[in-house]
Amino acid sequence: MDEGAPSAVVQIHWPEGEWSRAYGVRDLETRTAAQPTDRAEVASVTKTMTAVAVLKLVDDHLIGLDEPVNDVIPGFTSSLKPPGPITVRQLLSHTSGMPEVNDALPKDIDFRPVLSQTLTMERGLQLAGTLPWTNDDVGSFKYSNTNYLALGLLIQTLLHKPFVQVMQEEVFDPLGLKNTSLNQVDLHEAGLLHGYVALRGERIDTTNNTFSVGNPAGGAISTMEDLNLLMAAIFQGRAVSATSLREMKTSPSFRPYGLGVWEHGDGCSKESRHEGKGSFDDYQTVAVSSGDGKYQAAMTVTTPPMPSELEDPSTQEKRDYLNGRIESALNETLDRLCSAAK
Questions:
Q1: N or C: which end of the chain has fewer CB within 10 A?
Q2: What's the predicted TM-score (pTM) here?
């Protein structure tokens, strides 16, 4: 907060209780105090939600984890030109080697024209298809949002329903995520944390989520309570089958990423904790759960208004550092709580 973040919201949950707190303001115009129940764009924590929906397809035997998707996802082969068969597991674990769609977006310092257009799943695949995808990349960890755009298309293809509808019916409603959505935000909504990015020295309100509406890789708006409910449901075994949960926790490569979740050490258990981590220019979010689902912690910080990476490349390192500090704070807190319970 001392470094200029407009707000920080956190909730911790453990077997004996729950603690939540909000710091700062919802927006820098009205300076209304932030509340623990406020919603924010949670960026790539969305991937954890999408992974749940995909694993439910696997549980329902609509597709196998190691089945190729090339001929299942519309436009996959024609748009992306994959160098070989690509499986569901590879998409979920970022081991497909697929090009990153963000690398194909216009490289203009003025980010507003890009943010004013929705990045649909279909358009995302087409843009990524303008970049090379070689066989050498397949099989090793290479984080790419395009993987989850493809998974969104897989979901709606197999269930014959729009992706957003499936997420509401199959993930948000069953898990009690009452304040989570993939829809367009109402900028006048009470309880919405506003985000900001600087452009040539001017502070720009970037809360409008037109770019990420309905995006399986980063389109969710949620509360810290909902993120903790999500993680608790997953790791207590209520979201997917025991088999799928075991697969979700398993990293298929040398990097600490399973199927939709990152791995992190647990100071009280031999079993790892798991995380959803989200990073936008204007929001940094981390949601953590113990492997047994008994402990959760989630925090979002509206990033101090800084230029985009295109205007000032050094700001990406600052955002990454902030995300890492959030992750450390949450895990250190859970370490203290679980150690005290022993």
A1: C
A2: 0.97
